[in-house]
Description:
This protein is mostly helical. The protein has helices at 2-24, 33-46, 63-72.
Amino acid sequence: MEVPCLGKNVMAGVNAIACANMALAGFDKVIPLDETIDSMYKVGQMLPSDLRCTGKGGLSVTPTGIKIFEKLN
Length: 73
């Protein structure tokens, strides 16, 4: 489903700009980036596959989400 992801992508873009500003300002990180990425990956792997933007859960399986899917296919 494109619509829910659009909001997440906008928030991620704003977060990326804020992070870039912090990096340029010399923000002193507490946890190194590689450890942060590794930790986020491990948390993502713990999520059931239906909850990983697969279209098998969340808003994708609501009546409206199913109607949109059928209209697009």
